[in-house]
Write a sequence for this structure.
């Protein structure tokens, strides 16, 4: 019995019986009251199924079936509880991500308010609507870059890392940015 208690060390000083009592006090809808009473008598109070024949006024085979079904129901309830806890943990993680996204969006709105309207118009120009070469347009389109606002968030080195981008394309784009009064790595 001392060896079995080692499995429950993470509960602190509670004994196996105290842990079973705590578990069985949880309202698991899957476990009928009679099953719960039999489980408490066996798991918590240390009685044998045979000791329950008189108090429960049931045959031994029926009590064994109740005990067996009660254990199955308890295991199933614990699995469901574990799945719910995992769901809660996932929701908490998603909430954390959503809060971070919200903070980022608030930063974006703050920056947006500080940008002059004339600059906003230039930043919103679509790359596809410019006289840039087809190669630069294709690099941007393939990378999901559709406006100058998205372009200027890149550094020249990061832009060069995009697929099919070479020095010539980056230099062409850089010259176009300068003509518009823009540069690489703008915080817009």
């Amino acid at each position: 019995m001392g060896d079995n208690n080692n499995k429950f060390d993470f509960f602190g000083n509670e004994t196996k019986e105290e842990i079973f009592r705590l578990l069985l006090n949880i309202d698991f809808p899957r476990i009928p009251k009679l099953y719960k009473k039999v489980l408490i008598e066996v798991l918590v109070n240390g009685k044998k199924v045979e000791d329950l024949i008189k108090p429960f006024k049931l045959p031994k085979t029926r009590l064994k079936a109740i005990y067996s079904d009660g254990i199955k129901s308890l295991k199933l309830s614990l699995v469901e509880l574990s799945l719910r806890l995992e769901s809660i943990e996932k929701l908490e993680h998603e909430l954390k991500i959503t809060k971070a996204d919200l903070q980022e969006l608030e930063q974006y709105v703050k920056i947006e308010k500080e940008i002059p309207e004339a600059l906003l118009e230039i930043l919103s120009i679509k790359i596809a609507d410019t006289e840039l070469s087809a190669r630069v347009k294709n690099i941007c389109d393939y990378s999901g870059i559709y406006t100058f606002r998205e372009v200027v968030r890149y550094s020249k080195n990061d832009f060069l890392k995009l697929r099919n981008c070479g020095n010539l394309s980056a230099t062409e784009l850089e010259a176009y940015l300068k003509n518009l009064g823009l540069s690489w790595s703008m915080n817009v």
The first helix runs from residue 2 to 5. Residues 1-10 have pLDDT under 50 and may be disordered.
